[in-house]
Specification:
Distance between the termini: 5 Å
Radius of gyration: 21 Å
Pathway: Cell wall biogenesis; peptidoglycan biosynthesis
Largest sheet: 4 strands, mixed
CATH topology of the largest domain: UDP-n-acetylglucosamine1-carboxyvinyl-transferase, Chain
Subcellular location: Cytoplasm
Number of domains: 2
Pfam family, one: EPSP_synthase
Organism: Caldinitratiruptor microaerophilus
GO biological process, one term: UDP-N-acetylgalactosamine biosynthetic process
Bound molecules: uridine-diphosphate-N-acetylglucosamine, phosphoenolpyruvate
CATH class of the largest domain: Alpha Beta
Length: about 425
C-alpha cells in the first residue's frame, strides 16, 4: 500500500509532456489482437496499471505482447488459444469489456468477467450485450461473467443508448470482422473513437464516420497488423492545466491536441485563467481571484466527466459559489466527502454539487477510492496548508503514470511513500 504525502503551497510552473491516452490505448491494444496476420507496433502507450492488466488478459488468451522500448508495444495474435479471460484480471478494469468484442469477432464465443473500473455508479453492461445481440451473438451474464456461446456474426443497424463510449468501441471492434454492414446510430464522438477507427482502418478494416454520430462499418474477412501512435491523453492534459490554475502557477503541457480540450479551455478562461493555445501545446497561467464557473458534464465535445472532480477542487477555492452537475455517472461525487475534510464547503444535491469557495484548505489524511476523485484530492493537497496524505494511490496509478514525478518536476512537494 502506498500513499502520497503532499506539502501544499507551492506554485506549479514549467513544462510537462502529455502521455498517450488510456481510453484510446485500451481499445487499440485489444483491436491489435484482431489481426490474424502480421504484427502491430503501438507507440505512445502509457504505462498505467490498467494497460498492464489488459495486456496480461490478452496474453492469457494467446496474444504475444512485448514492450520493445518504453511506450512501444509489439502485438501479435496469429491465433488466439483461449476464449475465457482470467476472471480476477478482467473484473479489475472497465476496458476488459472490449475483450468480449475481440473474442466474439475472432472466435465467435467468449467468457469475460463483468468489468470493474472506477466505482462511480452502477455501470452495467446491458448496452454492450444488446449490441452483441444485434450482431447475432447469444450472450448472457452467468456466474459474474458475460458468456457468449458459439455464434455467427452479421452486420446490423444499432442505436447506441446514451452515446455510450464503451459500447461504441466494442461494436466497432466486433463489427470489423462481422460479415455485412453495421451502422451505429447515436455513436460516441470522443477523439478516442476516431483514434480506434484510424487504427482499424490501417489494419484493413472499413470504418467510416467516426467522430460523427453515425459510424458505418463494412465487415472484412481478416485484418493485418499495423503501426499506430496513440493520441495524447486529453484527461491527463486537462488535469495538469487545472493544477496550474489552482496553484496560481504557469504550466505548459507539450505534445497534446488542444482541439480535444475545447470546452475545458473555455471553462478555464471563464474561471479567469490565461490559456495560451499552441499547435501542440497548452499553457495555463493561474490568475487570482479564481472566478466561479459552473460546469455540466456532457459526452464529447462537452465538458468531460473525467475532469469533473479536478474541476470541483478548483472551484472549492474560487471566489464565490459554483454549481457542478454530473450527467454521466450517478455517483461521481463520492470524493467530495474527503475534500470536505480539507475544509471545502460542498453540498451534493442529487446530481449537482454546490460549491462555496473558501479562502484556504488545510491538509489532512484522506482516502482516494477511484481514479479521478483521487487525483482531485492530490490537487487539493497542492494548495492546502500543511501536509495532506492521500491514501489509495493504486487507484490513481490506473490512469496516471507516476504523477508525483511530473508534479515534482513542476515544483510540487509530493512524495510516494509506503502507507
Ligand atoms: C475505459 C474507458 O474508456 N472509460 C471511459 C468510458 O467509460 P464507459 O465506456 O464505461 O462509459 P459509457 O459512455 O459507456 O457510460 C455512459 C453511461 O451509460 C451507462 N451505461 C453504459 C454501458 C452500459 O452497458 N449500460 C449503461 O447503463 C453508464 O453507467 C454511464 O452512466 O467513458 C466514460 C464517459 O466518457 C469515461 O468516464 C470513462 O473514463
Ligand atoms: C472512469 C474512468 O475509467 P474507467 O472507465 O476505466 O473506470 C476514468 O478514466 O476516469
Amino acid at each position: 500500500m502506498e500513499k502520497f504525502v503532499i506539502r501544499g503551497g507551492r506554485r506549479l510552473s514549467g513544462r510537462t509532456h502529455a502521455n498517450g491516452a488510456k481510453n484510446s490505448a485500451l481499445p487499440i491494444i485489444t483491436a491489435a489482437a484482431l489481426a490474424s496476420q502480421g504484427e502491430s507496433i503501438l507507440e505512445n502507450v502509457p504505462d498505467y496499471t490498467d494497460i498492464r492488466d489488459l495486456c496480461d488478459i490478452l496474453r492469457a488468451l494467446g496474444a504475444e505482447i512485448e514492450e520493445v522500448e518504453p511506450g512501444t508495444l509489439r502485438v501479435r495474435a496469429a491465433e488466439l488459444s483461449g476464449h475465457v479471460a482470467p476472471y480476477e484480471l478482467a473484473r479489475k478494469l472497465r476496458g476488459s469489456t472490449y475483450v468480449m468484442g475481440l473474442l466474439l469477432a475472432r472466435l465467435g464465443r467468449g467468457e469475460v468477467a463483468c468489468p470493474g473500473g472506477c466505482d462511480i455508479g452502477a455501470r452495467p453492461v446491458d448496452f454492450h450485450l444488446k449490441g452483441f445481440k444485434a450482431l447475432g451473438a447469444e450472450v448472457e451474464i452467468e456466474r459474474g461473467s458475460m458468456i457468449a456461446r458459439k455464434v455467427q456474426l452479421r452486420g446490423n443497424r444499432f442505436y447506441v443508448d446514451r452515446a455510450s463510449f464503451g459500447t461504441t468501441i466494442n461494436m466497432m471492434i466486433t463489427a470489423s470482422l462481422a460479415p455485412g454492414t453495421t451502422v451505429l446510430e447515436n455513436a460516441a464522438r470522443e477523439p478516442e473513437v476516431v483514434d480506434l477507427a484510424n487504427f482499424l482502418n490501417s489494419m484493413g478494416a472499413r470504418v467510416r464516420g467516426a467522430g460523427t454520430e453515425t459510424i458505418r462499418i463494412e465487415g472484412v474477412k481478416r485484418l493485418r497488423g499495423a503501426r499506430h501512435e496513440i493520441i495524447p491523453d486529453r484527461l491527463e492534459t486537462g488535469t495538469f492545466l487545472i493544477a496550474g490554475a489552482l496553484t496560481g502557477g504557469d504550466v505548459t503541457v507539450e505534445g497534446c491536441i488542444p482541439e480535444h480540450l475545447g470546452t475545458v479551455i473555455a471553462k478555464l478562461r471563464e474561471a479567469g485563467m490565461d490559456v495560451e493555445v499552441g499547435l501542440d501545446t497548452l499553457r495555463c497561467r493561474g490568475r487570482r481571484p479564481i472566478q466561479p464557473a459552473d460546469v455540466e458534464t456532457q459526452v464529447y465535445p462537452g465538458f468531460p466527466t473525467d475532469l469533473q472532480s479536478p474541476w470541483v477542487t478548483l472551484m472549492s477555492v474560487a471566489d464565490g459559489v459554483s454549481v457542478v452537475t454530473e450527467t454521466i455517472f450517478e455517483n461521481r461525487f463520492g470524493f467530495t466527502n474527503e475534500l470536505i475534510r480539507l475544509g471545502a464547503q460542498i453540498k451534493v444535491d442529487r446530481n449537482s454539487a454546490i460549491i462555496r469557495g473558501v479562502g484556504r484548505l488545510t491538509g489532512a489524511p484522506v482516502e482516494a477510492r477511484e481514479l479521478r476523485g483521487g487525483v482531485a484530492l492530490c490537487l487539493a493537497g497542492l494548495v492546502a496548508e500543511g501536509t495532506t496524505e492521500v491514501h489509495g494511490v493504486r487507484f490513481i496509478d490506473r490512469g496516471y503514470h507516476r504523477i508525483e514525478e511530473k508534479l515534482r518536476s513542476l515544483g510540487a512537494d509530493i512524495e510516494r511513500v509506503r502507507a
